[in-house]
Amino acid sequence: MVFESVGSLAAGPWVYAVVAVSVLLDVFLPVLPSGVLVITAATAAAAGSGAATGRVPHEVPDILALILCAATASVLGDLVAYRLAWRGGERLDRAIARSRRLTSAQQRLGDALARGGGALVVLARFAPAGRSVVSFCAGAAHRRARDFVPWSALAGLSWAVYSVALGYYGAQWLGATWLATGVSVAALFGAGAAAGYVMRRQPAS
């Protein structure tokens, strides 16, 4: 079975390195399938550990390592984008000013952080390209790191837990098959579409 061989490879450290690089870079290239990769790795880890068949010998450390890897890479990517935008200067400010979507996002983010709440940052992590918009807008607006980073960490952890759980429990419920991966990926995209809808519905002040 394909997933049995893939699952045996999921224990290798290279899997975590590939996941980390993909998640870190997709803040700059939102087209990278980092979420799909995380789900596939979680499904393969469940298959390799025997979790998909009801045996649970050593899957917890692998799953926890995958969550930690994806969450850490997500926060690091956010910070890199945030710092680059902070130093972007007038050229980046003009680029944001020319985009109604970016201007609105920057305004909403500023309002959310000023109120001491960053639910928008967490929500944006699930929306298509939302992570990129929020990270760059926070940096371009020179929002304080202490206002942005904790919410970025919560967003990265929430997204990582959700993505890994989809792959892991999908393998348990549907078996370690491509069908399970497809259903899990569809659930991830569904959450992204819902997050994007909620963000668009929120009025800018």
Structure commentary:
It is a multi-pass membrane protein. One of its GO terms (cellular component) is plasma membrane. Keywords: Cell membrane, Membrane, Transmembrane, Transmembrane helix. Its main location: membrane. Belongs to the DedA family. With 205 residues, the chain is an all-alpha fold. The chain has one domain. The protein is built from 10 helices and no strands. Helix 1 crosses helix 3 and helix 4 runs antiparallel to helix 9. The longest helix has 30 residues. The relative contact order is 0.16. The N terminus is likely disordered.
Order of helices and strands: HHHHHHHHHH
Strand coverage percent: under 5%
Spatial extent as radius of gyration: 18 Å
Instruction: Indicate the mean pLDDT.
Output: 76
Count of structural domains: 1
Low-confidence stretches: 1-11, 50-61
Number of helices: 10
| Percent of residues in helices | over 70%
Structural class: mainly alpha
The largest pleated sheet is described as: none
The coarse silhouette is: elongated
InterPro entries: DedA-like, VTT_dom
Keywords: Cell membrane, Membrane, Transmembrane, Transmembrane helix
Transmembrane segments: 6-29, 36-57, 63-85, 148-170, 176-199
Family: Belongs to the DedA family.
